[in-house]
């Protein structure tokens, strides 16, 4: 089963963004936050999930549900 972190990383890599670039695009000042999401240390809040979906052009299901798709 894929995790939201793996989906974020795969979508980011496919889009050609660095973690810092993605952070800038979604309005996060701490570029390390992207790394924490990708490693499933923390789950992005709903607002951040919306921005990730918009910028990366992927569908990320509810973080609490654990299901993701790219």
UniProtKB/TrEMBL annotation:
InterPro entries: Cro/C1-type_HTH, Lambda_DNA-bd_dom_sf. Residues 8-63 form the HTH cro/C1-type domain. Pfam families: HTH_3. This is Multiprotein-bridging factor 1 family protein.
